[in-house]
Amino acid sequence: MSAASASLRLWQQRLFSTPAQTAITLGIAVCVIWLLTPFTRWALVNATWSGETRADCAPGGACWVFIRARFGQFMYGFYPVAERWRPNLFGLVSLAAVAPLFVLTGRARLRLGIAALLLLPPLGVWLIGGGYGLAAVETRAWGGLMLTLFIAIYAGLIAVPLGILLALGRQSRLPLIRTLAVVFIEFWRGVPIIAVIFLASLLLPLVMPAGVGVDRLARAVIGLGLVIAAYMAEAVRGGLQALPKGQAEAAAALGLGYWKTTGLITLPQALRISLPAMTNEFIALVKNTTLVLVVSILDLLGIAQSSLADPAWVGMNMEAYLFAGTIYWLICFALSRWSRSLEAGGPKGH
Amino acid sequence: MRDFDTKNREDVTMTKTKLTAAIAATAMLAGGAAVAQTLVPSPTLDAIRTRGNLECGVHVGVPGFSFPNDKGEWSGLDVDYCRALAAAVLGDAGKVKFTPTTVQQRWPVLQSGQVDLLSRNTTITFSRNATLGVNFQGINFYEGQTFIVRKASKATAAKDLDGASVCVAAGSTEEKNAADWFRERNLKVTITNFQKNDDAIAAYDAGRCDAYTAGVGALAGQRAKLKTPDDHIIMAEPISNDPQGPVTRYGDERWQAVVRWVLNGMIAAEHLGVTSKNVDDMRANSKNAEVRRLLGAEGNFGQMLGLSNDWMYNAIKAVGNYGESFDRTVGKDSSLKLERGQNALWTKGGLLFTPPFQ
User: Looking at chain A from residue 215 to 274, which residues have their Cβ under 8 Å from any Cβ of chain B?
Assistant: First the structure.
């Protein structure tokens, strides 16, 4: 029996084994077709792909011309066209620096990782923001997907190290440190993210002395980072608690102090265990970046909404949201697959 | 203890006297002209000049009023006004930066000084003026709830809707306003409720109702989304009164006057026939005294506010008069094709009015 017919048999068994099963299968199939046909007709068959204005778009179909005309804005916001090579370059450099991490092993990987972590974030701020020889681009000109990724990554850069420290703090035997960590975590986990962003963006300038202004984007990134740090801390704590006590005890028996035990024995294992949970938090963070909309930082979703107000393109809601939604989905799906592969390749035991 | 206090108080009095003298001396040194002595300090204007740009709070997106175009530039009626103000204050309509604001953040952004003014489809109301620490500097758009109907129906005003059906979003202000208005006039109008505005307008478009109701400005944007926009008209006469205009925070009266009079100037320019095209000719050749004062050919009206005398010339040259801006952004030259209606000049049957430049 060939493999093809075996799998056919398997599907037959799963979907059509009993009359009731068959009815359910057919019912669902009809529903799917019934739902997908008009959508496909609108999004693909009757859609218009090329042209310049909405006049070029055929009625009854999606007008992807709109996305084409606005593509630059959806990707970069109002970032000056002549300077867009800068975020592009940063993206490429980051990819080039991070890709070898998946191939290298041992000490080389660790060194590259630390170097990337220390050098890339300031490089990004410099390349995108300018200064020191590059034309300055105000953060209000940043936008679109570039900004979404920027917020997610930089808030993540705050959240991960802070989260690890908080998790360790929460496990600490020193009452002061433990209390501080618990209070911090419980406070930030207890407030809605939207309130944090709102307060950071609106109340801070009200209470700060005139002239002392922290950039609005920076405030939003820090606010998001603090909240996510609290969640990350709980994810890491889960990993730490999953480790058998014997690990730390064995390390102590070998004469290792707290920092060596943590750095060499418990934390690396705990992080590996909690990586899927941390990735989950990161996925949540990517989606939560859209909340910066309330302080009118025009990320991918924000720029999509603002574009809809252009009388030249008014009514393109479906196209705009479908496009933005697809991009968010692609990012989150990729992250979730990555986290799955980590889980699969993770440690099988201690 | 007591001695110390008395002495202290004397010191304060001394300082005050010195300060007053110093201010008077500076004023005399600075201008010599009578104008300089009457100018009150304006921290906002000073800040704008130091910064080199105006900070204008606009809406994140209302068709025709405030939106980024394909090139990523902010455009619209409210945005135009900010550009005119920048031209009047700094001589360059490009020296303005926009902060798009949402409904939730508009007031805090203004109150905390992150923007110099708001120009963003905000309705002027008593309670806002009285409690939020903000002042409204005139009206740049008479918004009001009205109806969109099919041209074929021949209905031209809300009173013609007797026996008709109106699609509305359930629980909206519009629903309540419309129901009250028809009940008060004993008109039998069927109000059909929908979950959301989008559903209501879609139902209207599909022919389930004879009319749909919303604000004039919103309807202009909604009409563009209909299958055949040209088959529908927006009734000019509104059933509610929601005027909108630029907003400043309390304090800095001179800045508030600048904001108010640049808007007045744009309206006056339309009234006096000054456009972006003929403004040079008008400044050089007009014999109308008000035109000459407006454009700085006569008198020193700009200086009285601490601006240059060609302030309105710059604004009109760059942005045009109110009518030009209206036509370009929401009116006949735009895709929204909004009638002037209440937003026509008071001399042409509208409500748009300016006090004289005298």
Answer: none
